[in-house]
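Journal club prep — side note

Before the paper discussion, L.F. wants everyone to see what a predicted structure for a comparable chain looks like in token form. Sequence:
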Amino acid sequence: MKWWPFKEKTVDERIVNTRNTLYKESYFIVVLLCFISILAKNLYYGQNISMITTELVLLIVTSLYLGIRSILLGLYSDEIEVHDRKSKIPMSMKNVIWGISFGVILAIWFGIKSSTSYADGGIQSIWYFILVFSVSLMIYIPFFLLVIVSTHYFASKASNKATHEDQEE
């Protein structure tokens, strides 16, 4: 449905692709500046969440918008298909690897932080690290696997549905 009765302009594909590249680059620059601002404020003001709220809102809202729009337009499933054709490792397996990696990295971080903050000496530090590391593995690997794999599954399913609906029209 057209809201205004303007004539459609002829569009040059090269111009559209170049403009899309510029938009992608500007989005990357904004995200990079937000991360730099978060790091600088953390170093200067300490870990005060109220100081970085604007940057966090910008990062979360733009990422959600980009993800939801790509799913609703059917681009997500197309990107997965192209990726799976080019890569030896399918996207679903990469998501499992990312979930396990995030869980292990977080467990190592908590183990080191716990052993340096709460232990009194060498053997106790090792024991705290092993204990916190193993418990964190049991908690965070299933959590990240569930979140990342289920998000990928449902996003792919919704994007396939949007693609099929678009092809039927």
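L.F.'s comment for the group: The two ends are 14 Å apart (CA to CA). Keep this in mind when we get to the figures.
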